[in-house]
Specification:
Blueprint (H helix, E strand, L loop, with lengths): L5 E7 L2 E7 L14 E2 L3 E3 L9 E2 L4 E3 L3 E5 L2 E8 L2 E8 L2 E5 L9 H5 L6 E5 L8 H11 L3 E5 L13 H8 L23 E2 L6
Parallel strand pairs: 2-4, 3-5, 4-6, 10-11, 11-12, 12-13
Antiparallel strand pairs: 1-2, 7-8, 8-9, 9-10
């Protein structure tokens, strides 16, 4: 969705559950971003202020704790810069690390074991930069990684590019994709997969 915002579509038993994370209005006035969304669950790492309009009264999580909503387990973990979100669904553990500015301490890392899919910022300034995000990947050893919050425009000198992150982790950049479908059975067990999503 652009920036650190992410939309997850989770199949749970007989229904689809839509989860959105950090749907804050982009600072770049030229950015294309949906004015409204209608999720089932909305997660905010820095509170709800500045979010786009969310319709249909989603279940909102913006504080630490453990929650089960529509069969999705959500563990929101406090850090010095906001909340991390660890979701368990479809036999996968997904970690959204959009709130991180630095590597988590040991106590936090102990709560982040067995991450299957890591969604991490890599652009720097007020979030992890490419080098520190690569260190987080090394620490957690996820089966798949989705970089977010990186440089989208060539004239943006403040943020690291996604290529800088890929270089740090020793991967080559494939063509960005509009969306990705992940399943526990198809995630690699040895070499980590990196998926670069298109920016809106």
């Amino acid at each position: 969705m652009g920036g650190a915002a992410v939309k997850l579509q989770i199949k749970n038993q007989d229904r689809d559950v839509t989860v959105v994370i950090d749907t804050y209005k982009p600072k770049d006035k030229g950015a294309v971003f949906p004015p409204t969304l209608a999720p089932d669950i909305a997660l905010f790492s820095h509170g709800q202020e500045g979010s786009i309009t969310l319709q249909q009264n989603p279940f909102i999580i913006d504080s630490p704790g453990e929650f089960e909503v529509h069969g999705v387990l959500v563990h929101s973990i406090p850090t010095s810069n906001g909340l991390l979100f660890q979701l368990t669904a479809e036999e996968m553990i997904v970690l959204h690390a959009g709130a991180l500015k630095e590597l988590p301490n040991e106590k936090t890392l102990e709560q982040l074991s067995s991450v299957d899919v890591l969604i991490t910022p890599v652009g720097g300034t007020d979030v992890l930069n490419a080098k520190t995000a690569a260190a987080l990947v090394t620490e957690l050893e996820p089966r798949a990684c989705i970089p977010i919050a990186f440089q989208y425009k060539k004239n943006d000198a403040e943020h690291d590019t996604v290529d800088a992150f890929l270089k740090e982790v020793g991967h080559k950049n494939g063509a960005p994709v509009p969306k990705v479908i992940l399943s526990a059975a198809k995630l690699p067990n040895e070499d980590m997969e990196i998926i670069v999503l298109e920016s809106n």
